[in-house]
Amino acid sequence: MKLVLPSKTIFHAIESTIKEYRKFAQKNISEAIEDMTIDQGLVLIFLDEYPDMTQKEIAELVFKDNASMTRMINTMVKKKYLKRSMHTEDRRRFNIEITPKGKEVLKILPPIIQNNRNSSLQGISKNEQKQLETILKKIRANCTNN
């Protein structure tokens, strides 16, 4: 059996689409907030919505390993987007809080993100979006269950 070239598979299409979207979204975010990455913006958004979330929980939501998440949070603390303090009950944990500078970024991000989503989904009906989401969930379930 001859193997189909990786570049001819649906997985290549999915990955290249994600990479193009991230480049597109990063460009638009960088135009408004010079030193902010997509992932740093996501961290702020999740922490704003769930202030008690642990570093590990945030890492899972933004698809980062623990070491990468630690580096990102360290960077965000240096940039003064986040403040870190010792957890009062568990010395192995830290409290992570959004600073006033981080709160300012949270006012700027939503319209940029919404514009990114609208632009990238232009010409794709709600029904097509739902179908794609259903298919992707099936692929993920197949990978998880096997």
From TrEMBL:
GO terms for molecular function: DNA binding; DNA-binding transcription factor activity. The keyword DNA-binding applies. Keywords: DNA-binding, Transcription, Transcription regulation. GO terms for biological process: response to stress. It comes from Pukyongia salina. Residues 7-141 form the HTH marR-type domain. This is MarR family transcriptional regulator. It comes from the Bacteria.
